[in-house]
Write a structure and sequence with these properties.
single chain, 103 residues, alpha+beta, Immunoglobulin-like, 2 domains, 5-stranded antiparallel β-sheet, two-stranded antiparallel sheet, 7 strands, elongated
Length: 103
Amino acid sequence: MAISIYNSCLYLLLTSSQKSSYNWTTVSDVAGNATSYSVYHLMPNSSYYFRVCAFNDLGCGKDHSVAANTKYNRDEVDAAKELMAKEKDSYRNNVDDETPYLK
């Protein structure tokens, strides 16, 4: 997820939340001349809210917020399903035939 930043200041404070009004977590202090910042390790199919606040000698300016929705990569989902199916089959092949609940 890339967020465009167009402010010039001492530094920017980037915070995020999965709810729009609480539990804000600091993502990073970003250099004041930054124009973008990438956020990694987000959960697929989730909504995130980001706030950017520019700091200068007078303190924090007005927060700027943006909402973003993540998607999942269909190829990754299909690969995970295939691996899980193979593991399940391998497990079943190694279980004694006297275990009827796994059949």
